[in-house]
TrEMBL record, chains A, B:
Zn(2+) binds at C87, C90, C127, C130. Homodimer. Binds 1 zinc ion per subunit. It is found in: Cytoplasm. Pfam families: FUR (PF01475). Its cofactor is Zn(2+); Mn(2+); Fe(2+). It comes from Sinorhizobium americanum. This is Ferric uptake regulation protein. Keywords: Cytoplasm, DNA-binding, Iron, Metal-binding, Repressor, Transcription, Transcription regulation, Zinc.
Amino acid sequence: MGTPQLTKNQSLVMGALAHSDGPMSAYTILDKLRDHGFRAPLQVYRALDKLLEYGLVHRLESLNAFVACTCPQDHDHEHGVTAFTICEGCGQVTEFHDEAIEQRLSTLVRAQSFKTEKTTIEIRGHCKSCA
Amino acid sequence: MGTPQLTKNQSLVMGALAHSDGPMSAYTILDKLRDHGFRAPLQVYRALDKLLEYGLVHRLESLNAFVACTCPQDHDHEHGVTAFTICEGCGQVTEFHDEAIEQRLSTLVRAQSFKTEKTTIEIRGHCKSCA
DNA sequence: ATCGCCATGTAATGTTATTACATCAATTGC
DNA sequence: GCAATTGATGTAATAACATTACATGGCGAT
Ligand SMILES: [Zn+2]
Ligand SMILES: [Zn+2]
Ligand SMILES: [Zn+2]
Ligand SMILES: [Zn+2]
């Protein structure tokens, strides 16, 4: 089971995010898509829900914003824990993955007998250029 | 330099969070403090800003809510990276710290020449009781 | 007393997200 | 063919979260 065919609205939202150079809020996406017939927030939120489900998009919790996934790999399988650096200067977001962190978190959480459903790792700061 | 004496509003907000059994949104805090003269969101947000600065309170980004810090240690010094498990069932939040994760993240981020200012780690799932 | 600083009070507004309800299209079963 | 189901969509209204702007009050330093 891979990613299903995207609907019209999902494709539009995906396209907007993919062509953006940084994260966008739902309302920013809405504005970008007004020319394509978008009128209400729900059109964006519904599309985002699916795109998040398919793993094509990530939500940045500390920003209330969304980015296209930049994983090199296919999305036929769930990718593990996703982490982000987020530059306060230029808004650049970099997605990365690390097996060691995933393992360590897994160990710590298991020690609490906690069952993980979703892990958020976001690092705010300044990128090389904006230091 | 330790934590300064809290102002009246800061004390009230801190008290509300400390006596709560879980995270509270700013507006929930506001409601709890109406009897003590709170009338507007800003009174809460201003107090929270300071409490966050002093490290007495943490913001849960994935919840838009706030919790009292449960560090055993004093707050005379910054504590390192803070992580949370957040149960979707009962709302229980557990704060924890891990040197290994901190180190590993530090390494990865340095490899990007990124300068960290604040790290968010939040694990949503179900606790032992709510499995 | 005057100034500067910080905490506070209040109102208005801005931003993010959800609920409720109606409609439409494709699919399934009869 | 045609009702029933399912999933996507459209629209409006509202809820939830956060900030801006401006005015006031307390208090220590000069
Ligand atoms: Zn990704
Ligand atoms: Zn930057
Ligand atoms: Zn803490
Ligand atoms: Zn629980």
